[in-house]
Amino acid sequence: MSQARECGSVPVVLTIAGSDSGGGAGIQADLKTFEALGVFGASAITCVTAQNPTSVSGIYPLEPEAVSQQIRAVCDGFPVAAAKTGMLYSAGIIRAVAAADVRQGIPVLVVDPVMVASSGARLLRDDAIEVLCSELLSQARVVTPNVCEAEILCGHPIRSLDELRGAAEEICERFDVACVAKGGHLAGHEVVDVLYDEGEEFVFTGPRVTVAESHGTGCTFSAAIAAYLARGDLLSEAVAKAKEFVRNALENASTAGRHRPLLFSWESRGNRN
C-alpha cells in the first residue's frame, strides 16, 4: 500500500511504460526527466522495445502480472506521490495497471495515451483502446493526447486550433478526466496546447522549435507534468512548466551520432526555480 510521504523527503514518481533501447523515449526519457526535475523516479516496465529514433523493429510485452508486481513492489517500498503511464500496448496490461492503481492508492495519475510512434509503428493494439477509455482514463488526473491521439479519443478529425479546443473539452467531459490536447502537429509558427479541466480552459502558447527530431517529447512532457504535480504544483502550473521544460530540452538538443536527442539536463542552467 502506498505510504504517506515523509516530511522533507524527495517526492517519488513512478513511470509505467515501455523501455526504449534508443534511450530517448519511454522509461528512459521519463527517468531522465524525473532526475532533472528533482524527484526520485521508479519504474514498472510494460514492454521491451528494440528501437532507435527512426524505427521500431521489435515489441516484446511483459505479462500483465509482471507489470502488477513491479507496481506493487514500488508502492510497498516508497511513498509514491504520482505516477504516469506511457506505452501500455495491450488490454491485459491496461487492466493490470488500472487494478494496481486502485489497490495501491496512487494519489495522482497522468496518462499519456501512447498509440503510435513518431516512426509510424503502432504502440497500442486496437482492442486496447476501448479498455484504456473505459477502465483507466477515469482514474487519471489528466490525459495528454497529441492531435492524432485526440482524434482517436474523439472519433473525428482535428484540423484547427478551435477544433483542438473543442476536442480537449469533449475528452474531458466524455471520460471525466482533465485533458491537455497538444497542438504540435497543427500548422503554424507557434505551438498551442489546450488544457480543459472541470469547466475551465487554459491555453498555452510557445514558439515552435525547429528541430531535426522530436523523438520522446510526448513522454517527456507527461513525465514533467507528473513530476511537477508530485512537487505540489496545480495542474495548470504543471502543464505550463512542462511545456517550458520540453521547449528547453529541444532547444538544447545535443548530437549523438547522427541523432539529436533531447537534452534533459538543461536544469543545471536554472530550470529548478
SSE-based structural type? alpha/beta
Q: Specify the oligomeric state.
A: single chain
* Helix and strand element order: EHEEHEHEHEHHEEEHH
**Proportion in helices:** 25-40%
Spatial strand arrangement across the major sheet: 3-2-1-4-5-6-7-8-9
Query: The CATH topology, please?
Result: UDP-N-acetylmuramoyl-L-alanine:D-glutamate ligase
Description:
The chain is an alpha/beta fold. The chain has one domain (12-258): Ribokinase (UDP-N-acetylmuramoyl-L-alanine:D-glutamate ligase, 3-Layer(aba) Sandwich), CATH 3.40.1190. The chain has eight helices and nine strands. A nine-stranded mixed sheet has the order 3-2-1-4-5-6-7-8-9, with helices on both faces. A hairpin with a 7-residue loop joins strand 7 (178-182) and strand 8. Helix 5 crosses helix 6 (161-175). The longest helix has 17 residues, at 235-251. The radius of gyration is 17 Å and the shape is globular. It starts with 11 loop residues before the first strand and ends in a 22-residue tail after the last helix.
